[in-house]
Specification:
The protein is mostly helical. The chain has one domain. The protein is about 70% helix and about 0% strand. It contains 6 helices and no strands. α2 packs antiparallel against α3. The longest helix is centred in the N-terminal third of the chain and has 27 residues. The chain is flat, with a radius of gyration of 18 Å.
Length: about 180
């Protein structure tokens, strides 16, 4: 058991070293973060063109969907330069799920249901952090066996473990306020 704790601490230390190394090169991800938000919106636009085409029976909406998709693919390549297996597709779905959770959370907030909104916002940020963790190679997917069950518990006051550490790392290196 002690060896397993040492291994986790070593992995966390390795992640912290990667963050420190990225800061030495003055890595500015503010543009990439803005781009990731634009990509989220393009994914949403694709969905709206699909539903509008299906509801109206007008295939022109599918043509527009395809145009939005091509732009989204081109922009996603600017963030995801190297990937293996299905990391490209996983990344797209992480951004899509992030956007949807933010939208639903905002609706809850508008209805005065702050606790539910904050829970959805937390989950959205965890997915967004996972997107950056994958694409900045801050995590080794083969090392991720299982996310702690308590990481998804609405009653947790502060996230710990893998998702908590990853979220903290993303906060340190993805800063939209860097000019």
């Amino acid at each position: 058991m002690n060896n397993m704790n040492n291994n986790k601490e070593q992995k966390i230390q390795e992640l912290l070293e990667k963050v420190a190394e990225s800061k030495k090169g003055k890595l500015d991800l503010s543009s990439d973060q803005d781009l990731s938000i634009a990509i989220m919106n393009l994914i949403s636009i694709e969905e709206h063109f699909f539903f509008t085409g299906a509801k109206t029976g007008k295939s022109e909406y599918y043509d527009l969907l395809n145009q939005a998709r091509e732009i989204r693919k081109e922009l996603l390549k600017k963030i995801i330069k190297e990937y293996e297996g299905e990391v490209w597709c996983i990344s797209k779905h992480l951004l899509a799920a992030t956007m949807r959770l933010i939208e639903v959370g905002t609706k809850y907030l508008g209805k005065g249901e702050k606790k539910e909104a904050e829970d959805l916002f937390t989950k959205a940020y965890e997915l967004y952090s996972l997107f950056w963790g994958l694409n900045l190679k801050l995590l080794n997917v083969s090392d991720v066996k299982k996310i702690d069950d308590n990481q998804l518990n609405v009653h947790d006051k502060q996230k710990s473990g893998f998702m908590g550490k990853l979220g903290d790392l993303v906060k340190k290196i993805v800063d939209c306020c860097i000019e």
